[in-house]
Amino acid sequence: MSIATMTLFHSPASPFVRKVLVLLHETGQVDRVELKTINLTPVNPVAELNADNPAGKIPALRLADGSVLFDSRVIVEYLDQQHVGSPLIPREGAARWRRLTLAALADAIMDAAVLTRYETFLRPQEKRWDEWVEAQQGKVRRGLENLEREHIAELHAVFDVAAIGVACGLGYLDLRMPDFGWRERQPKLAAWYAEVSQRASMVATDPARG
Known about the structure:
Blueprint (H helix, E strand, L loop, with lengths): L5 E5 L4 H12 L6 E5 L9 H4 L9 E3 L5 E2 L2 H9 L12 H30 L7 H21 L1 H6 L3 H16 L5 H4 L1 H10 L3 H5 L6
Parallel strand pairs: 1-2
Antiparallel strand pairs: 1-3, 3-4
Helix pairs in contact: 1-3, 1-7, 4-5, 4-7
């Protein structure tokens, strides 16, 4: 068993944190990272998190030398270069840029879903902006439609950084927006997710289990 030499500031419900955790499981690096739970909201900053991470966001990864990496895109790139298995991010060529672009689409879906959650759950009801919520949900819809139409074969091909991001995004929709009804509109994506959600890395990081 490896000794933890890094600390991951995390919240189990965050899809961006889950993306990092899934990668740790997939690459056999779980024991190298100690988890430090942070109770964070946009109006509840945490001094320890902000000290070396001025954006104050999670996930953030403190390395053995004390330096801190953020955000999830940087962290997964770093961790993917710390193991001896096949890389989950292509190192070069057209494949790298295509998979990173697909991963960015997954991040955009997660970001819009998180913003929807903030607006509908954290903001006082009398201050909520319905048009904002509709705009964010529209981003999610467009992203899922694009995945269904253009990327199913790629998602089936390999469970890499892009597929991990998509899976974590769909898991977050199920957790925080259970009435969104994406499965009815994207049946091929739903079938893919039903399969990958049974992977050991996905089961171990499922926030609904905690």
